[in-house]
What we know:
Structural class of chain A: alpha+beta
Radius of gyration of chain B: 22 Å
Order of helices and strands of chain A: EEEEHEEEEHEEHHH
Distance between the termini of chain B: 41 Å
Mean pLDDT of chain B: 88
Structural class of chain B: mainly beta
Oligomer: heterodimer
Strand order of the largest sheet of chain A: 2-1-10-5-6-7-8
Amino acid sequence: MAVGGRREAGRGRRFSSPAPRARALGIFLFLAVLAGASPLGAQKVRIDVLPPPENAWVDSAPSISSAGLLADGSMRDLLANGFPARLHYRLERWASGRWFDDLKAAFEWDVILKYDVLGKKYQVVRVVNNRAESLGEYPTADAADDAVEAPYRAGISLPKKGQRGYYNLLLDVETLSLSDLDEVNRWLRGELKPAVKGEKNPGTAIGRG
Amino acid sequence: MCALVAIAAPAVSRAQNVDTVPRDTAAERLGLWARTSRSSGLVLSSGKTYNRVEGLPVLLGPVFHDSIKSAELNLSVMGIIRSAEAFHWDSENLGHRIVADMRVGRGRGYGLSASSYDVVTPIEPWQLPDPDAGLAAFFGHRDFRDYFNRHGAKATATFNMSTRSSVAFEWSDERWTPVSERDVFSVFGNGGSWRANPLTDAGRFHLAVLRANIDTRNDDVNPATGWLILAEYEHGTGRYTDVGITSPLTRPFADPDVTYSRGLLDLRRYNRLSPNTWLNARVVLGGWLNGDELPLERRFSVGGIGTVPGFDYRRYDPGTIDVAQCSNGGTPPPGNPAQCERMTLVQLEYRNELHSSFFDFLNSRPIRLRGIGFTVQPTVVAFVDAGRGWLVGPRTETLQYPSGSFPAFGTFRTDVGLGLDLGLIGVYVAKSVSESKPPANVFLRVRRRF
Lengths: 209, 450
């Protein structure tokens, strides 16, 4: 159960890949629904869908980067007291249609940030397709934030040549409750067997029960 | 055993929701599996509802969760005490819900469940989600639902096609009793009289329900594309011990022994037109299919903020055939209950998301509810609604139609409206089109209209 808060935001870039002049056509921003423990106005939050190099829309997926997601004071307090933060990303690729746009592909992943109170270090884990990958341990919250928010190339399927469309990113940021801590601790101890076997998705398990 | 006390755990909040009609919100459809905490222990919870019959139901009892290989087991034994009449300890204020269920498979799989319950249930939960109904009653002294009591037991078998799509079969043995409005607190208008809760039928019923829930939406909170289909077939047999009051024509004669079949289809389609515009549609069809006339608890109505908001909920115009509640124009029974045997509702809405920077000043300090901060996601909504109910039988003016026919569209109640959905809450204004006399209605909705 999320106790600290939840932030959902999204941003997308349009692609138009009758290639040679493929480029970003526009940006739209959703500052949405459930915002986290942080006042968005207090710290500038940025989420970027970084387009692939020019002319490479059909060859390369976009990267996602962000800034300021975990900079809020109350979020930092929760982290410092051992409550993990979970960032759930969902990148969608839409194709523009004559009447309605069509959802062509979606790719989801989680990034979990936890402070080890005894070891005085921040642990960062990315969970993709039921596989957890450590992004390292960091002595400061700022360093851990950098790891969380570093550009990540999503493994979403690419548009066909000539297809017009755009990307849409949805992001949930939430801190987790005491009841979720055990599960997070098990992952961090390396007990990822259920997830590896595909029986359980640790990324969704803590947030969604 | 009493290891944990959790306040307002979502799973047990379903304790009041044993109606066979699927709930409007995704969280409510998920059932006990939706618990975000898997801890066993003692749970104290609100019923996540508020109404003029119960006030706030409070649930207390132990819950147990465990898993064996891929099977998850859940057991909850919840007692219910209601806040009506200042938590007075009497039979009307006490209830229970005991649920034991097992689910195999996290996505595709199956589940088995058995439950015993004594709960107050809304008659038409398809119209309005719990949060809207509860907040209107708590703050505004307006209750947009009617209720009855269900006391019995139920067995359910569910085949899950995915985490959000399933087919379920239920069999239940229940005793239905009418309940009346009580002394329930509200923030505004406290002490005033509530709209009467209709006197419904009483008796014992055996219900067999086949229900399909197909959800292909990309997001269950803010869907941009996909289908949500809720289909339900109910076959009921039973015996009345008392029959409720009805208008003439609605039920000319009530045989104590009753056998009926009833269907409900709630079809929603979400379409994205561009990155920040959507066109969404909803069609609801419900009604008698065969057998005897439907008990009052299984009938339908339209009108009010959940369906055709340009018309007041349960409005009564003397001398006018009421195609919303299906009374013949005479004085309706107390509470003006839903009496229609069939109903159709069509809703269409166009949504255009505004650039949120217009509202950034509202986001500088998010509204906090139970530790969760909410910010503003402004979306302009334009909508149109049309709906009506009718009786089944020999053609009688515009109130009753033979089983194989359908009322002319010109007899429907229609409205148009405009709103601003801020994400957490939406402010709307709706004006009736099919009738010029009713003034425009301004109303609030929690989250989306559908």
